[in-house]
Amino acid sequence: MHAYRTHTCGELRRADVGTTVRLSGWVHRKRDHGHLLFVDLRDHYGITQCVIDTSSPIFREVEATRLESVVTLTGKIVARSAETVNPKLATGEIEQQIAEFKLQSAADMLPIQVNQEGDFPEDLRLRNRFLDLRGEKMHANIMLRAGVIASIRRRMIAQGFTEFQTPILTSSSPEGARDYLVPSRIHPGKFYALPQAPQQFKQLLMVAGFDRYFQIAPCFRDEDGRADRSPGEFYQLDFEMSFVTQEDVFAAIEPVLAGVFEEFNRGRKVTKPPFPRIAYDAAMLKYGSDKPDLRNPIVIADAGEVFRDSAFNVFAKAVAAGGVVRAIPAPGAAARPRSFFDKLNDWARGEGAPGLGYVVFESGAAKGPIAKFLDAPRVAKLRELAGAGDGDAVFFVCDKKGPAEKFAGVVRRKLGEDMALIAPDEFRFCWIVDFPMYELNEDSKKIEFSHNPFSMPQGGLEALETKDPLTIKAFQYDIVCNGVELSSGAIRNHRPDIMYKAFAIAGYSQEDVETRFGGMLNAFKFGAPPHGGSAPGIDRIVMLLADEPNIRQVVAFPMNQQAQDLLMQAPSAVDAARLKELHIRLELPPAKKKE
Q1: Per-residue pLDDT tens digits for 275-329
Q2: 318 burial class (0-12, 13-18, 19+ CB within 10 angstroms)?
Q3: Which helix (H) or strand (E) holds 304?
Q4: Pairing of strands 277-279, 429-433
Q5: What CA–CA distance (Å, rounded) separates 29 from 115?
Q6: Is the pTM of this model over 0.85?
Q7: CA-CA distance, 146 to 144, in Å (whole number)?
Q8: CA distance 436 to 429
Q9: Buried-exposed string 141-164: b where 16+ CB fall within 10 A, e elsewhere
Q10: In terms of DSSP bridges, do strands 212-221 and 162-163 run parallel, antiparallel, or are they unpaired?
Q11: Looking at residues 90-103, what average pLDDT do you find?
């Protein structure tokens, strides 16, 4: 018989009754029933109930074993009686009668419980992550992650992609966040950077002629953490394709994502390819966000013309001055009590808005604080624009275009949540397309890239030379699911002449471009194919599938929000001899005084 196990703890069934087996695992739970002691033994595969009688010579030894100790149990498999069968366990029809016991590793008193879901502080869980990962939920999340990555690999290869690895030690590149820097011992004063993304390398692979690349790529960014973003590092499905249009990219990745979500959806509905395409401007108007949650049925409308030259002077003056009015319909809100509207008004003030005006439609008439300022034609126009009928309400946001769109999106989300309008058990995908190539910095009044500077402008060089830069769209696209941005992507700018011009509009000289992006630019001068790609985030995909609100719940060993690894105590100080070897002298900020 094997030294540790003949079977796993999730394997045994009624057909195994009468056989003598050996199991190894962790003591998950113990239950004392007087003359019998039940031990639930757990391993990676499941749980088997084991039992020992008080008359056994090894009873005291088994009884004294602490939870989470690792043990090996040998004994015969017997059938449970009908009334003791546990339908919640795959092994619930049998149990093992313990004849031999060996303690492999004793556990100390546990800092957190494993056999039940407890509300333990996150820092305690992260410090003891090896215990946290033993819990059923966390174990399932990490196995889901492994399954998702394996599924992605299979599907990408089936789509004709080849997996490549790109460097981890590279040069610093402006990607929108701070780099993690690695000092060079043999090149004093110089530093490598950990890649924020394999962007330039994957484009260089296209220039090298490899055609379809993918990688489950680690990325490193020194940025603040939040619920849907890990500080420090994350993983993405990085891919790139040659000789493709935007639609070719969509057609290649949609079956992969839809297939993965179908495979792990647990009965939830998934958008079928092709996914809806929504232009950026339309998304900002209708949903107040370039990451719209399409499970929310509310569609925002432009109500500026309803209030232009109207008797409601606050909105009328704002519209005349170039502002906008956004109307956010609330289906069925007319039946809500007055307190519902008052609480929303107070909430809006708490968000920095002056309030939240509204109109309620009942019995063919408009009511509410703003209704008296609107004549019948304006009320009819508002009904038409907002798609509102009797029993509905319409809320209003008035401001400059940008702030009005964003706050209207916040109101839409708030109404969707408070009124339980968001469809449950669905994964709703869409593409956001036609992003603006440039935007105006309101502070400096200078034109800047709005999204990805390496994207191909729609219209190419001619558009850059003849159009107002603020009207130029780019071949840029995001894929969004349930209000979560899974990735950004683009058809790349592969021509040096177009790249020089695009950067010149944003204030970069030819010398600047050559200094910053010399490696890739030089490669483009020797024949670069038209190419494009994207990089859906693995962590966010798993977070959605696991229905977890926090990304740290789907990462085996995450950092906390302060970018600390509490388990391994990183970052940590380095001794003076090592710093000297790296030619580094510390100049630390003064210690903060304790109040």
Answers
A1: 999 999 999 999 999 999 999 999 999 999 999 999 999 999 999 999 999 999 9
A2: buried
A3: helix 304-307
A4: parallel
A5: 7
A6: yes
A7: 5
A8: 21
A9: bbebbeebbebbbebbeebebeeb
A10: parallel
A11: 98
